[in-house]
Structure formats: structure tokens, C-alpha cells
Amino acid sequence: MMENSVNKTKKQEVYVRQPHQSYLILNNVAKDSNFGFLIRTANAMGAVPVIVGRRRYSRGGAAGGTRRTPVSSFLRMSDAVAAMREAGCDLCGIEIMPQAKSAIDKPFRKSTAFIVGNEGEGLTDSLKSWCDYFVYVPQYGTAVSLNINVAAGIVLHQYAVWAGFKESPRQGEKFQRSGEQVIDAEGR
User: Fold this and answer.
1) SS3 for the chain, per residue?
2) Half-sphere exposure of 136 (CA within 13 A, CB side)
3) 164-174 per-position pLDDT tens digit
4) Strand partners, 72
């Protein structure tokens, strides 16, 4: 499916077998901590992170999640977009703009690759040109915008609900990691 992908894993193959798949395209993220948080959030919401560019990011903030997260990497945005199109995905920009639809209304149609912009500037005109449509997260207070990771997390959650992703199993007060065996209080 993604021949240009640098890093394919078994877990990524499991993600791709879902009837609807989500991806989070990371391009031009300014803060290393946000980069790590975005990878962790994508993993938690069942999305595959897609990294574009040559920049090496610190994956701080991922709390070890990057070791358990399949990541696809591309040097150019055009290659990432071609792979997403080949996979049958819509491209959806997460951006506050007049034509954007509320993510709460779940305007999704099929497998989707979500594109987030830079923390300060949002999506560039070039990134917007790749998008089939846009979503935003409604706000009810006086802040002018949400943190990039918070906005992406809300949108990816809405998509996961729309797509009917199966909730990950819980063990105690945490979600169980993939491949871990659940043992009850009596050791069974």
C-alpha cells in the first residue's frame, strides 16, 4: 500500500485491515514536544502517524509510545499524498476557517488522512491545496485556538467513534498495551 513508507510493522498491518482507517500527517510541526504528543495521541486513537520531511524530531512527550507506534515516513508531501490517495483516503485539514465543518458533526466519508498545520501559522496554503475538506473543533470559551495536539486528539476521537473502532481493553486504571496478557486479581 505505502511503498514509500520507511517503517512498516505488524501493528500497522492490523490498523490497515479496519474497514475505515485514519492517518495523521505531521508536516511542519514546530515544537518537538508537540511532535511526540501527536504520535502518542495518534496511537491512542488508532491512527497511523505519517511523518513528512527530513527534520529529525525529538519524540519527547510520547512516554515511550513511539516504540509501540507504527510510523510511515516520506521525504516529500507529494509522496505522502500519493500514498494516501492510493490507499483510498480523503485528505482532511484540521483548521479553523470559514468552509471547515465541525468535527463534532462527524462529516467523514471514508478512510481519512488528517493534516495538522504549524502551531503558530496553521496550515499553509500549500498544505490546504492538498485537502478535500476541512474540520475544526468548536470552542465555547475565550481562547483563540486549541493546542495542535488537543485539536488533533478531538478530531481523531470523533473519527474513531464515526468509524466504529473497537475500544482498546482496559486493565485497572490504564488501557492495556497491544499484545499484553490481561491477568485478573487471582492470577488467571
Assistant:
1) CCCCCCCCCHHHHHHHCCCCCEEEEECCCCCHHHHHHHHHHHHHCCCEEEEECCCCCCCCCCCCHHHHCCCEEECCHHHHHHHHHHCCCEEEEECCCCCCEEHHHCCCCCCEEEEECECCCECCHHHHHHCCEEEECCCCCCCCCCCHHHHHHHHHHHHHHHHCCCCCCEECCEECCCCCCCCCCCCC
2) 15
3) 998 888 888 88
4) 50
In the block, residue with C-alpha cell 465555547: 140
Whether 68 and 44 have beta carbons less than 8 Å apart is answered as: no
Q: What is the arithmetic mean of pLDDT over 28-41?
A: 84
Q: Are 7 and 72 in contact (CB under 8 A)?
A: yes
Q: What's the angle, vertex CA 56, arms to CA 78 and CA 38, rounded to 5?
A: 75
What does the block give as the cell for 112?
481519512
Enumerate domains of the chain plus CATH numbers.
10-175 (3.40.1280.10)
Compute φ and ψ for 154, nearest 5 degrees: -65, -45
Read off the pLDDT of residues 38-80 as tens digits, 9 standing for 90 and up.
988 998 899 988 888 766 666 555 555 556 677 788 889 999 9
Indicate the range of 1-15, 63-77, 135-149 predicted with least confidence.
1-15
